[in-house]
Amino acid sequence: MRTGLFWVILNLILIEIHGSFANSYPSCQHDEPASIGYHHAYSVPFISQAPEIDGSLDVSLKTLPARSLSMVIKGDDANPECNIFYRMAYGTQFFYMFISINDTNLYTRDRAYQNGDGFNLVMARAKPHGKRTDEFYVLAGAAEKHNSIVHAKHFFWYYNVHTLFKPTSTDTKLQIKKKDDGITFELLLPWTEIYPYHPWLEDSLGFNLRVVKGTSNGSVNFYYAKMDHRLDSENSTRAYIPLKFNNPHHVKDHQSYVRLKRNHIQAGDSLGLQIATLSADTRSTELHTQINSAEGAII
């Protein structure tokens, strides 16, 4: 399997294909930051298959780098603190995150993504030299209780600088688990949910994470990957940490991701597509497209 770049024209459809990646790429499990501009990027390992999202970390994922949320803003100076770690990975179709908290008290307050217990995940298009960005999604995750049963709520809180409050699709998976040694949040976020972002089709992506943890005295603590007092502010840019997505490896099948080159076209224009494809061997692949009108009719 070789790395290649291919250009294919099918009728009026322009397809830009970023070809296969070689199996010889090593798996990186070390948290060694790579420099991007004046900032450092966190490495994100590749996993070939999506894990089962049940709130428990799979044995095969325990080698993912565990990073600490060590920056804390306390709602009250007397608040106790806890240790919070997170792990990240990605696949052709998804972004994965696992959060572990060494506090066995799970709070399900109103607007738990702000008041505990919950989290806010920023996925952003990085800017030169690490400047704050106005292109991002903020995903809110929260613990809710209905009839004494804890459920996971998740929705998009912000898109760019505007408040959104849009539910995710059912393809986004989030599970919360309370165990004897603490609390976990396990998230699977498809790239299609944060369109057009994809690590193989973007120059640079960034992220930020804030975990909102309730305390026993009725207050709350905010734990950050990168401090940003405007993370939950409307009409505001966001801070982020650049991400370096490790090269894929150990793929046994064929995987592809497709996105439009432009979202708006006029009559007579070509429809441009970008395809990132990954394969364990050399093979032919058919691409089937369907264009629908605003009313749903096939064009």
Describe the structure.
By secondary structure, the chain is mostly beta strands. Helix content is 1%, strand content 43%. Strands 3, 4, 6, 9, 10, 11, 12, 15, 16 and 17 form a 10-stranded mixed beta sheet that branches. Strands 5-7-8-14-13 form a 5-stranded antiparallel beta sheet, with no helix packed on it. A hairpin with a 2-residue loop joins β13 and β14 (182-190). The protein is globular, with a radius of gyration of 20 Å. The two termini are 37 Å apart.
Report the total helices: 1
The count of β-strands is 19
Instruction: Report the sheet with the most strands, covering strand number, pairing sense and barrel closure.
Output: 10 strands, mixed
H-E string: EEEEEEEEHEEEEEEEEEEE
Rounded mean pLDDT score? 86
**What share of the residues lie within helices?**
under 10%
Point out poorly predicted stretches.
Answer: 1-38
Silhouette: globular
Terminus-to-terminus distance: 37 Å
User: Which percent range describes the beta-strand content?
Assistant: 35-45%
Q: What is Rg? A: 20 Å
Derived from helix and strand composition plus strand pairing, the structural class reads: mainly beta
Keywords:
299 residues; mainly beta; ten-stranded mixed β-sheet; five-stranded antiparallel β-sheet; 1 helix
SSE blueprint:
Blueprint: E1 5-10, E2 13-18, E3 34-36, E4 39-44, E5 67-68, E6 71-74, E7 84-90, E8 94-101, H1 112-115, E9 118-125, E10 136-146, E11 149-159, E12 162-167, E13 173-179, E14 182-190, E15 205-214, E16 220-224, E17 241-245, E18 254-260, E19 271-279
Parallel strand pairs: 2-19, 4-17
Antiparallel strand pairs: 1-2, 3-4, 5-7, 6-16, 7-8, 8-14, 9-10, 9-15, 10-11, 11-12, 13-14, 15-16, 15-17, 18-19
